[in-house]
Structure formats: structure tokens, C-alpha cells
Amino acid sequence: MHSCIYQGRVRHRRFQPADHRFSYNVFLMYLDLDELPALAGRGGYLSRRRFAPATFSRADHFGDGHQNLDRAVRDLVESRAGF
To answer: What is the three-state SS of 8-57?
Structure first.
């Protein structure tokens, strides 16, 4: 399985015109699109049909729900990148 959650910290500091700083935690999800069906069935954190901390509905992303999501994303990137 390739999908994972990355944890990091964003920091900022400014010295002028006034000293100011902040820092906060960030969490980023890397989801292998081919793994979505398996991920939605594990642990209850990601769901495709019911309430969960993270939900994913194929109909909300890249139009035609009948096309494979991975293929739809690749087609978009290829068309906009010009290859």
C-alpha cells in the first residue's frame, strides 16, 4: 500500500515592521487513487458512502464517474501540460 499521511509543521517569522511569528501542525494525505476502494473499507476514517472524518465521492471529482479516476487525473495533467 502506497497511501499515507504526512505530518509537518509550517513556520513563519517576520522581523519588520513588527516582530511576528506563528507555527502550526499540518497533515497531508497522499492517496494512491487505485487504492481508494481498499482504503474506504479500512478503519472507518475514510468512507465513500457514509459519515466519516474524511469522505470521498467520485461524483464530486473530474466529471464522468464511469471513467477511472486515476485515468481522468492523468488525462487532465497530460492535456494541460501539453503532452
So the answer is: EEEEEEECCCCCEEEEEEEEEEECCHHHHHHHHCCCCCEECCCCCCEECC
Q: Output phi, psi for 25, to 5 deg.
A: -80, 145
Q: Write down the pTM of the prediction.
A: 0.61
Distances (CA, A) of 17 to 14, 20, 30, 72: 8, 9, 38, 47
**pLDDT digit string, tens, across residues 9-45:** 999 999 999 999 999 999 998 988 888 888 876 666 7
Residues in the chain: 83
pLDDT of residue 10: 97
